[in-house]
Structure formats: C-alpha cells, structure tokens
Amino acid sequence: MHQTQTGGAALQTMSSWRYRVGLTLFIIGNAIVASSPLLPILGVDVGIVGAIIVAGEIAATGSIFFLGKEGFKRLKAKLFRFLKPTEGPISRTRHRIGVGLLAFNSVAIYAALTLVLVAYSRTTVENPFPIVFGLGFEEQGTTFLALFFGGGAAFIASFYVLGAEWWDRFKQLFQYQGEVQATS
Description:
Largest sheet: none
Order of helices and strands: HHHHH
Helix content: over 70%
Structural class: mainly alpha
Number of strands: 0
Distance between the termini: 50 Å
Number of domains: 2
Number of helices: 5
Mean pLDDT: 80
Low-confidence stretches: 1-8
Shape: globular
Radius of gyration: 21 Å
C-alpha cells in the first residue's frame, strides 16, 4: 500500500492494524477503569475489582505502544482539541509540571497499594475491618479510590503536558544506542 508523501503517512497510520488495536485498547482500558467504581455496587468482590482495574490500566497504557507517535498525536489532538496544545519545545516549567504529574502517579499508586496491604495485614477474625492510618473501613475505600484514580488521571495528563517530543525521548530509553566510548 503506497501513499503519497504528503499526508500519506498519517492516512496509513489511521488505517493500520496497529492504530486500530491501540485505539481499541485505549477505549476498553479507560472504559474499564471509569466503570470500575460501579462494580462494588453490583456486588463484585473487592479483589476482583482490583484485578479489573489493573487490567484496565495495563490495556490503556499498552495502547500507547500500538498507537505509536503519529497515532498518539492524532488521538491526543482529537481528545484535547479544545485545549489547543502547543507544538514544539516545551518550557522548563511545563516540563517540571509533567514530571511532577508522573511522580504523583507513582506516589499515589504506591500509597493506595500500601493502604490495602496494611489493612490486609491487620485484618483478624476478631477485627475484620481494622482502622488503618486513622481511617475507618469506609474511609479506606474512598481514600484508595481517590489515590488510584487521581494517580491514573495524573499519568494520562502527564503525557499531554510533556508533549510528543517527550514520547520520542522515552522510547529511546528502550532502544540500544550502541556502546558508549569513554572520554578521557
């Protein structure tokens, strides 16, 4: 399938199987994560809800690898067209905000997991709902969801804030660059 040089790559990207798989993973992953707060209301076990949320996060994050740079830029443009993102280099402040959002994601996810692990380790037959970090059972669930979804939102926002050029630098971390010569 040959396309013309101008616009051909973008058209080919939009019709490729990789783009379709990436878009499908993005939609399914985010739909799973967005609908997961309803699952406990429907009587689904908390452990299963956690596994479903992790699967949704993996699918949404995995979509980026299938979309590639052009597909990710096109999807980002469609989703955030009302925000009019800037193209080209980003400012030092914007970079720091993006890195801060990535860091917040890590801290929030690990804090949520710590909350769950500590609550699980303190659970006994006599006290099935222990107070953890000063939080009662209902507050623990609310705090867990706030940390988990807040971290996920920060992760997604960081891609937008850091821009497409950041994605290229990130991909280079996983590409072998050859042996580095030591300078004297």
